[in-house]
Amino acid sequence: MAEVATENSIFISDKAKAKVINLMTDAGIADDPSYFLRVGVVGGGCSGLSYKMDFDNEVKPMDQVFEDKGIKMVCDLKSFLYLVNTELEFSDGLNGKGFFFNNPNASRSCGCGESFSV
Fold it and tell me: pLDDT grade, residue 45 (50/70/90)?
């Protein structure tokens, strides 16, 4: 039985996994194993830092690579310092639709949930 990382990783919820797979299928890259989900943090937003996500197929030298529930996620080393033990989630409820990060490192986030500070 394979050992599962329980800390110092990036995780994805079942709902977010399903949405990522749908988006990869729509983009025509679901069957290409070279593509993965790149997550990161950039300066900006009303709380100082904002999340970013995109599909990519190029791993850079200092990238951190994770896999959870069969989804490969990659982030740069600087972003990982902010994202360690974060879970990517997806909501399709009435109070907001889209991806969001459940980040235990964020000390404050803005009302819209798009940015945070540590």
Answer: low
CA distance 76 to 27: 23
pTM as predicted: 0.82
Query: What is d(CA 15, CA 19) in angstroms, rounded to the nearest whole number?
Result: 6
What's the count of helices (H) and strands (E) in the chain, helices before strands? 2, 9
- Chain-centroid distance, C-alpha 115: 14
Specify which residues 104 forms β-bridges with.
none
Average pLDDT for 82-108: 86
SS3 at position 23? helix
> What distances in angstroms separate CA 9 from CA 12, 46, 67, 87, one per listed residue?
10, 26, 9, 9
Distance, CA of 40 to CA of 43 (rounded, Å): 10
| Residue 24 near residue 101 (C-beta atoms within 8 A) | no
Listed in sequence order, the residues at least 6 apart from 56 whose beta carbon sits closer than 8 Å to its beta carbon are 35, 36, 37, 38, 74
